[in-house]
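Work Package 4 report. The design task specified in the project plan requires that, given a folded chain encoded as structure tokens, an amino acid be chosen for each position. We show below one input record used in the internal validation round.
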């Protein structure tokens, strides 16, 4: 399996493909326009174009060479057979654009927290510098080592769960811990299920059978989440309705069940799931903002207490 194209390029990729379909431009020509997005995209698109020229379907060619992921592939494959590629390119463009905007907003909200941490690192040793116990070089080394440690820690925390999952003995423990943590666990599970429901909505809209859509969409990195979703798949195999099967997923939102019930009665489950996921995304962003509003304040009070303690200790 080829290495996938970086996700930040996917909105522009799907936008270009949608505009080409909309304008009636031949697919090969549209793919050549996609080569201008980035060098890494160009290298993959050239291979996809060659495969399409030989008669391969664009969905299969893109998946085989890493232009898009498994869920996108299943959506595009179904849309390819139903003749609705333009609509699906637009849906995927919107999906990945919203994901990128959410990540960008989160990074922006994190900037004040990181700056406050850096200020705290600079302020903590000032009493030692002023009293003469530390030289300027000691102070500089302290700042350098702490900032480097902070950077390594941030990168390490992002990559640690993935690294631990590669080791079979620890993967189950890590996944169980993530879903069991107080406060964070329910929030994490809710986000995982939202991502699954969005993928499910996309595939149902593309015409994928519900049973197959659940199977293809159950790709969470967390094994505990996958295990919970498997109950839905088993129930569908036994003849349950989508709403009945979804009710078996541990941690599923009651609002989602109510919306799917009404959507199933009206024959538009995909639309109701899409609306639910949009609502969940807005709630997630609100929770992120509240968390990142209080985090700097907690750091500030902790820093004030530490500096006060240092001053009292120096006076004594």
């Amino acid at each position: 399996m080829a290495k996938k194209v970086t996700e930040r390029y996917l909105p522009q990729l799907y936008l270009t493909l949608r505009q080409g379909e909309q304008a009636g431009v031949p697919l090969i020509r549209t793919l050549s326009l996609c080569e201008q997005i980035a060098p890494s995209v160009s290298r993959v698109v050239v291979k996809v174009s060659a495969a399409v020229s030989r008669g391969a379907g664009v969905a299969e060619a893109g998946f085989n060479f890493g232009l898009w992921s498994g869920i996108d592939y299943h959506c595009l494959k179904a849309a390819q057979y139903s003749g609705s590629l333009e609509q699906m390119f637009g849906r995927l463009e919107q999906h990945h654009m919203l994901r990128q905007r959410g990540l960008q907003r989160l990074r922006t909200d994190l900037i004040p927290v990181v700056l406050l941490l850096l200020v705290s690192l600079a302020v903590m040793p000032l009493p030692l510098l002023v009293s003469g116990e530390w030289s300027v070089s000691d102070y500089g080394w302290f700042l350098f080592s702490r900032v480097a440690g902070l950077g390594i820690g941030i990168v390490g925390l992002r990559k640690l769960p993935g690294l631990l999952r590669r080791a079979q003995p620890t993967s189950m423990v890590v996944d169980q811990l993530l879903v069991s943590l107080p406060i964070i666990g329910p929030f994490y599970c809710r986000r995982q299920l939202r991502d699954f429901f969005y993928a499910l909505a996309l595939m149902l809209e593309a015409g994928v059978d519900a049973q197959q859509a659940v199977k293809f969409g159950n790709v969470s990195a967390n094994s505990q989440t996958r295990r919970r979703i498997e109950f839905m798949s088993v129930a569908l195999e036994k003849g349950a309705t989508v709403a009945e099967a979804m009710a078996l997923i541990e941690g599923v939102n009651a609002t989602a069940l109510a919306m799917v019930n009404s959507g199933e009665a009206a024959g538009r489950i995909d639309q109701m799931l899409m609306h639910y996921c949009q609502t969940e995304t807005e709630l997630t962003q609100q929770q992120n903002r509240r968390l990142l509003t209080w985090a700097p304040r907690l750091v500030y009070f902790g820093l004030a207490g530490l500096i006060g303690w240092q001053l009292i200790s120096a006076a004594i």
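Residues 269-315 form the longest helix (47 residues). Validation will be extended to a larger panel in the next phase.
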